Amino acid sequence: MTFEKLIAGIQPIDEKKRQAAMERCDQLVKPLGSLGKLESIACRLAGIYGEVCPEIKGKAVIVMAADNGVLEEGVASAPKEITAMQTLNMVKGVTGVMVLAKQNGAQVRIVDIGVDAELQGEGLIQEKIRRGTGNIAKEPAMSREEAMAAIMVGVRQVEALKDEGVNLFGTGEMGIGNTTTSSAIVHACFPELPIASITGKGAGLTEEAFLHKQDVIRRAVEVNQVDGADPLDILAKVGGLDIAGMVGTYLGAAYYGLPVVIDGVISAAAALLASRFAPNAREYMFASHCSMEPAYQAIMERIGLEPTLYLDMRLGEGSGCPIMFSVMEFACAMQKNMETFAETAMQDDFLVDIRES
Ligand SMILES: Cc1cc2ncn([C@H]3O[C@H](COP(=O)(O)O)[C@@H](O)[C@H]3O)c2cc1C
Ligand SMILES: O=C(O)c1cccnc1
Prior knowledge:
This is Nicotinate-nucleotide--dimethylbenzimidazole phosphoribosyltransferase. The chain is built from 14 helices and 6 strands. It is α/β, with parallel strands linked by helices. It has a single domain (about 60-325), classed as Rossmann fold (3-Layer(aba) Sandwich). It has a 6-stranded parallel beta sheet with strand order 3-2-1-4-5-6, with helices on both faces. Helix 3 (about 35-50) crosses helix 13, helix 9 (about 230-240) packs antiparallel against helix 11 (about 265-275) and helix 11 (about 265-275) runs parallel beside helix 12. It is globular, with a radius of gyration of 21 Å. The protein starts with a helix and ends with a helix. The mean pLDDT is about 95. Bound molecules: alpha-ribazole-5'-phosphate (RBZ) and nicotinic acid. Nicotinic acid binds near residues 203, 265 and 266.
């Protein structure tokens, strides 16, 4: 598959099916709108799957692990080795996303797309484009070709899982320093926003290092002369391999007409770029929880998505996705298993009375 074919193949969702689902939802034995976001989730899933009563058959979070060269600027409290260590912990099944996914019954695919170490582990997918990226404060993270290759890694993961029966995806990552690259992407896309308003402390930082992180984000976009209108330029110059792989997950899911869940701020930065590559891709995205990182809200407001859950989470890894999968399963159960007033064979005049009260 070529990149051009991928982008050209991303179609809008089936609006007629979404409308038909809304009609059924409005007929269910409940006051109109009373199941809130479960209703809008079920109806958008109906438009995606082309079924009035959508059904989730298989779920997977795809975790992209990579190192970020910008770490040498002192923008993160954790050392680089944590990326490799935590990737192996994922393989062992003991990290946050692994435990939450197991609880939901979702599988997790862990992809080494650019960790700066030779990793081995059962089930670890080896798709290393290069060992870590360049330091974006001084040079591009990677070449355009490398960014494109990393996107296609994500697309191929979706393709393989789809063939195994997965029809709901989640995006995850592991890469120390990637809240810096995420904020740099947001700065390149929305230069009008003050950098302080789109920068957070990531996994934890001192006040002094936090101010320095803002300066690094400013310099990264300046030094690389990023073209804010070209998503590939942004991704290659100030992004990362982890984020590029996630862009591929979004675009792949949208190409195959399947829903995909956004986790935290890094995942949201990838969603932002994916929607710049293909505006229709946004219709396949579901926001899970509201990350505590400030750039998250800035992205969501601008791409027009609303977080579903407020859990004060700021872990990343894809940890919000399995929680959202459960919410989406509840939404499908509502749509399929509740009965309509007509199905329960109530009298029409009585029905009008109670529904209008
Ligand atoms: C032990 C540990 C486990 C993590 N799991 C996810 N992250 C999260 O923190 C990193 C981003 O934050 P920053 O930009 O500040 O480095 C990413 O790896 C993200 O997944 C972790 C971070 C740490 C330290
Ligand atoms: O929102 C996130 O995903 C996040 C926040 C802080 C650190 N790592 C991830």
